[in-house]
Amino acid sequence: MTFPVRGVAVGYALVLGAVALLNQVPGIVDGEGRVFGIFALDVYDDLLHAASALWAAVAAFVSRRASVAFLRLFGTLYLLDGLLGLATGSGYLDLGILLYGIQPQPAVFRILANLPHLALGGVAAFVGWRAAPGSGPDAGRGG
Q1: Which of 73, 68, 83 shows the shortest CA–CA distance to 128?
Q2: DSSP state of 130
Q3: Buried b (16+ CB within 10 A) or exposed e, 63-82
Q4: Of residues 23, 25, 72, the one with CA closest to residue 47
Q5: Sign of the dihedral through C-alpha 36, 100, 53, 25
Q6: Of the residues 45, 50, 101, 139, which has the maximum number of CB atoms within 10 A of its CB?
Q7: H/E segment holding residue 110
Q8: DSSP assignment, residue 33?
């Protein structure tokens, strides 16, 4: 099974770019500064999402091979961050596990708070590692 990995990378660029802008949309951030009442996104998070969007866009523009590399690395990093957040209430991409340690949060909140990283990371890792055969050094064209 193969996917148009460059198109998938473009999709990630669009989604991550939109996420980077969520704090700027009136009505989405509640009185406690949480997006949708769940996600406490700060400038660091916005910059991380914007940098990830740029990385995805550049990878899609450069080649199929770069797109596969993005999906594999991004997917693995985000999936592991989501799993750590699910287990501890803190992730590592935002340095939360180092700054705040283990957070005593209800299981439902942990699931909702980490679902985006679990989903985005899981899908990217799957597409990059399982559904993108022929991604070796000679597969840099097309896609």
Answers
A1: 68
A2: T
A3: bbbbbbbbbbebbbbbbbbb
A4: 23
A5: positive
A6: 45
A7: helix 107-129
A8: S
The DSSP letter of residue 141 is: S
Give the Cα separation of 5 and 2 in Å (integer).
8
Query: For the whole prediction, is pTM greater than 0.85?
Result: no
User: With pLDDT > 70 as the criterion, what percentage of the chain qualifies?
Assistant: 88
CB atoms within 10 A of CB 11: 15
**Which run of H or of E encompasses 88?**
helix 64-88
Q: What is the predicted pLDDT for the residue at 1?
A: 60
Distance CA 100, CA 22 (A): 23
State how far the Cα of 16 lies from the Cα of 120, in Å rounded to an integer. Answer: 10
Cα distance between residue 91 and residue 121, in whole Å:
13
Q: Does residue 63 sit in helix, strand or coil?
A: coil
In single-letter form, the type of residue at position 53 comes to A
